[in-house]
Specification:
heterodimer, A: five-stranded antiparallel β-sheet, 8 helices
């Protein structure tokens, strides 16, 4: 091979090298962009859930607060479910995409002790209660109103649907070693203190408060309303709205005012329908607090002796437990 | 291989690694949130996984060719940091119990 041919060959090889390098570069660039595309698509997909979580947390921190929903739930139950209390430290909150689960236990005082009454599980989507589960440990369930019209606490002008004489006979037949929870309807409107003074040997745990429309159980617009009231006993539970409250009546009114902006949520929470808070708050502010029915608990014998009181109109036996009255 | 090309390749590798580490962290967060198992999340944030992704991202910023990957990796790490901050700070606000 002469030098000319060598030169030609060398030039040819160099050209081939260049072409190879060029193809490699193009291939690498294509590969790199392909991976960039795959990974950025993957990234967008993976960003969806965490971002939605952050938005959910933001909503429950700055929008309708999770603590507000919790307060509304607990306060609604305090005022609509007689003789119940909650341990808010035991509230469980669980957050998922745009929703919140709230579960907790409700207790009832029967005799001298508190017993678990119900376990609630609420599922909120944003601030809307979409699912409500209730697991009751009670033997007798306080009727929801107006879905079950059988009222246990009735205004003096209202009639009852249960057999009052039978209830007293049932109470009479219970063993002496039992403590009883009883729903007592009064024959007139009384101050809660006056009722407490008359019923000294038992605990008055809850009082149904007259709010101007309990004679008919209809609001001024003709909507059916439900009984509301407040716990009478001093409550030292740390989270209780009635803790250290000098006047339970004022705390009750305050609670109603706090519930007012969230009335629709409150009505979803409770089985007692139509709170009509606006109307009732203005009545209470003008006319004060009088009760037409109370829930009491104590030894069977003491509850039986309440029959002699002139103010007692009807009685409905609630929960019964074995003796725990250590006073 | 020339020194410059080697440096480019290594820095680009760091950039890719940073991005992939960020994506793995994101995937773990997704699994944890969707399954409701918090252990994964705690493990991820208590390890130095994200810190390594940040360091790799920063290193790859020093080269023009790997800079975009570096920014990408860093962006992912910043998002992860923001996620942790939001979840912990707001989580503390919305669950008022110890």
């Amino acid at each position: 091979m002469d030098s000319y041919e060598k030169l030609i060959q060398k030039a040819k090889n160099e050209e081939m090298d260049h072409t190879d390098k060029g193809t490699k570069k193009v291939k690498r660039a294509i590969n790199s962009s392909r991976w960039k595309l795959i990974l950025s698509t993957l990234m967008v997909i993976l960003l969806i859930v965490p971002t939605c979580y952050m938005l959910t947390f933001g909503y429950y921190a700055f929008g309708t607060k999770s603590t507000t929903l919790m307060d509304v739930t607990s306060k609604t139950l305090y005022i609509t479910e007689p003789n119940t209390t909650l341990e808010e430290l035991e509230f469980e909150m669980d957050f998922s995409l745009f929703s919140m689960d709230l579960s907790f236990d409700q207790y009832k005082q029967i005799g001298d002790e508190f017993y678990p009454a119900k376990h609630y599980n609420f599922h909120f989507v944003l601030n809307d209660l979409v699912k409500k589960e209730e697991d009751s440990k009670l033997e007798k369930l306080y009727p929801g109103y107006p879905t079950q019209t059988n009222q246990w606490l009735a205004h003096p002008k209202q009639s009852i649907e249960f057999n009052n004489a039978k209830e007293w006979r049932v109470l009479e037949g219970l063993p002496e070693e039992t403590v009883v929870e009883a729903y007592i309807s009064l024959n007139n409107l009384y101050e809660v203190d006056a009722v407490e003074n008359e019923m000294k040997n038992v605990d008055v745990t809850w009082a149904a408060i007259y709010t101007g429309s309990e004679e008919t159980m209809l609001s001024s617009d003709g909507d059916v309303i439900s009984p509301i009231g407040y716990p009478v006993q001093p409550d030292q539970t740390y989270w209780s709205p009635f803790r250290d409250s000098s006047s339970h009546e004022e705390t009750f009114l305050e609670m109603l005012k706090e519930l007012q902006p969230y009335e629709s949520i409150a009505e979803e929470v409770t089985i007692q329908k139509n709170l009509e808070l606006n109307e009732r708050i203005s009545y209470l502010e003008k006319n004060g607090f009088k009760t037409y029915g109370v829930v009491v608990t104590g030894p069977k014998k003491e509850i039986e002796s309440l029959r002699k009181l002139s103010m007692v109109r009807y009685m409905k036996v609630g929960e019964v437990k074995l003796w725990n009255w250590a006073r | 291989m020339e020194l410059g090309t080697l440096k480019n390749t290594i820095l680009q590798g760091f950039g890719w690694l940073s991005v992939v580490m960020g994506l793995i962290a994101l995937a773990l967060i997704n699994i944890s949130l969707l399954s409701g198992y918090d252990g994964l999340l705690t493990n991820l944030f208590s390890s130095s996984w994200i810190a390594i992704a940040v360091v790799l991202g920063i290193i790859s910023l020093f080269n023009k060719k790997s800079r975009s990957l570096g920014f990408w990796g860093l962006g992912l790490s910043i998002y992860l940091g923001l996620f942790v901050a939001v979840i912990f700070v707001l989580g503390w606000t919305i669950v008022p119990f110890p």
